[in-house]
Amino acid sequence: MQIYLPIAEMPVDPFVVVMLGGAVGFLSGMFGVGGGFLMTPLLIFYGIPPAVAVGTEAAQIVGSSVSGATAHLRRKAVDFQMGWILVAGGAAGALTGVAIFRSLREAGQIEVFISLAYMIFLGLIGALMLAESLRKLLRSAEPGARKRRRRRTAWMAALPFAMRFRRSQLYISPLPPLVLGYFVGVLSAVMGVGGGFIMVPAMIYLLQMPTNVVVGTSLFQIMFVTAVTTVLHAAANYTVDIVLALLLLAGGVIGAQLGARIGVLLKAEQLRALLALIVLAVCVRLAFGLVLPPPAPYVVEAL
Amino acid sequence: MRTGGLICALLTLLAADAACANDIAVALTDSVVEVDAGFAGARIVLFGAVEGLAAPANEASPYDIVAVLRGPDADFRIRPMERRGLIWTRGPGIRVEGAPGFYIVAATQPVEDFAPPDLRRALEIGAAHLDIAARLDASDGRAREVLARHGAQALTEAFLEAGRETGRFREIAGAVAFHKGPLFSIAIDLPPTTPIGEYEARVYLIRDGEAIAQDSAALSVDKVGIERRIYDLAHQRPIAYGLFCVAMSLGAGWLAAAAFRK
């Protein structure tokens, strides 16, 4: 059976797409990550035009983050003040990101750009994750891992307009979260990711938010920023395929639930090493696509 | 297209009654191909009849039939792949203005075997006669540079090759099936990459290297149903469509998670 995608303008096997969503959802449920950074390159490998893969992923992430976000809302584990500032920065970032995306697309460079951006990005993240999990696996025999509480850096305290974030028990300037949100917003729009894997560590180490509100606030920001990104991609690039997004979502939600259940049975550090290897494998596959001679010496673009 | 009409008109004017008695007529079984949610390519069938000539089994009057199915004209850009450092990127390209996005020739036998080059050129039978070179837009400096460096022939071949690879450009020999008496049919498979738009199928009756009769039929390939609605909404009211996508995704994500919790 085939389903013709109205925006991607190609037939796909819905079973394969749902399974793809399920597999990435399974990984994201297991590891507690969004999965956008795996889904977009996999869609491109499957043959979806890169621009459509990015725009569609934004729409899918909206749906896959909603259940997590509302669960954290119910537990009151969301810092709304911080959340809205991150969303404001993120919306501005998404605007910039979609503009960058559009000009790259008009210049015919978007395919190469997306592959290159993902290759660098996944390479870095995969290497960091692998290094950290290996270090921890080797050290796990030692009892009492070191716990450092870094003091807030001087430059953060020197920034103007300091305000009180009651939920996070912080007194800091809104500029760092605004800039952080902006940066993640650009990333979200250009690469079709939620950006949680950058947002969460940045909230913990840079903003020094308490860990119990970090995940909820990050999901809150992701849901809103990917919603803004979806509308902007739809308006500027016509690259959001709702049929594809819903198919991926169907598989993704089920996969995530299964993944979360199986994830608790496994050791965290082994999981992280496994995810790192998957991320690096996708990175290598992208690198081959960029470095190996293309199948034809010319490309013909329909205008 | 105009040349073909002209030739026919000339034929009609100049030829004796005997020549005019030879005629060909075609019709499509379906004049609309609907691209819906289940679209994965389609098959169209041209039905026709030849008048005034015996079936080709009779060797006394051998003739050939060739059908040219041509899709909507569109603009394209051909870009050479260039190596920059370690990676391959798309270099600056050149525009192709108003070239068919779809072009299939289906005939009784390879066209070279029965139609002389002049005739093929005049009737644009065969992708080689589409004259892509003349449609290359070298109006700006960069495009001129691309044209000078790669040459019109290589660029033309790249354009045709891209069409052949996706099944949009094909030449099929032995595509004509003869039935009872003067009836024949030509089946053409449209790939899933078939562009949306208006098509024309022109069918020529060729004998002794000349087109002695022709007819045509119109075909339209169009999105219908939910495909059409989503596509139209996305292109005509993109912001509303974006909001719709967000709402659908939110709703689906919420529902799926709620269903799973139980």
Automatic annotation (TrEMBL), chain A:
Cellular location(s): Cell membrane; Membrane
Protein name (database record): Probable membrane transporter protein
Membrane topology: Multi-pass membrane protein
GO cellular component terms, A-Z: plasma membrane
Segments crossing the lipid bilayer: 15-38, 82-101, 113-131, 179-206, 213-236, 242-266, 273-292
Lineage: superkingdom: Bacteria
Keyword set, alphabetical order: Cell membrane, Membrane, Transmembrane, Transmembrane helix
Organism: Amphiplicatus metriothermophilus
From TrEMBL, chain B:
Signal peptide: 1-21
Transmembrane feature ranges: 239-260
Domain of life assignment: Bacteria
UniProt KW keywords: Membrane, Signal, Transmembrane, Transmembrane helix
InterPro entries for the chain: CHP02186-rel_TM
Pfam families per the UniProt record, alphabetical: Alph_Pro_TM
Protein name stated in the entry: Transmembrane protein (Alph_Pro_TM)
Organism this protein belongs to: Amphiplicatus metriothermophilus
